[in-house]
Amino acid sequence: xxxxxxxxxxxxxxxxxxxxxxxxxxxxxxxxxxIADLSRVGQWDRALDGDxxxxxxxxxxxxxxxxxxxxxxxxxxxAYPEAKVVLSTREPEAWEESFRETxxxxxxxxxxxxxxxxxxxxxDPQWEKYLALxxxxxxxxxxxxxxxxxxAADLIAAMERHNDAVKQAxxxxxLLLWNFGDGWEPLCDFFGMRIPDExxxxxxxxxxxxxxxxxxxxxxxxxxxxxxxxxxxx
Length: 234
Known about the structure:
alpha/beta, Rossmann fold, 11 helices, 5 strands, 55% helix
């Protein structure tokens, strides 16, 4: 494990994943890997229970960004003492709006994202467990990111607490605060690498997030409907 990304979701983490892989610091684990393989959810539930096998979780990966990994930045910095830590940041109001319209809307409100995600959970037990993990990690339980989240100020305060906790826990020489707008130079300086000739990747805007969740739900619901047609309950 070379790099531990401690930044919150919606701080350019998918772009950060692509950047690290371009620099040869991948493969890089990201929440998209959990969505792509829902069997991983159980590993993270066990991690929340204090029973994580980090080498098993990150087998085949050389770095991690976004959550679930970022949620465990303390444990990971202790487990991998040679790894450097990148705290990706974003302007608070812009982050709150993006976070609320994506991850928060997956769990609350009457958005199409939440309604389809909830419907998928009725026919897909693995997705139901995934939503329970999201709820546990972000909203409920002693390790939740933001038990209070109804108002914009609540989420911003939670973001600031998380960022402050990272800065207090990780030695300054081991930590890089990075904003996507900073570009390649701080990352490359931090890792002692040459700046690539290609532009910094820019991935995972809100549309992409919603398409991933909505597309996955429609696919799962369609597959369930086809099974019902083939094997109707009499």
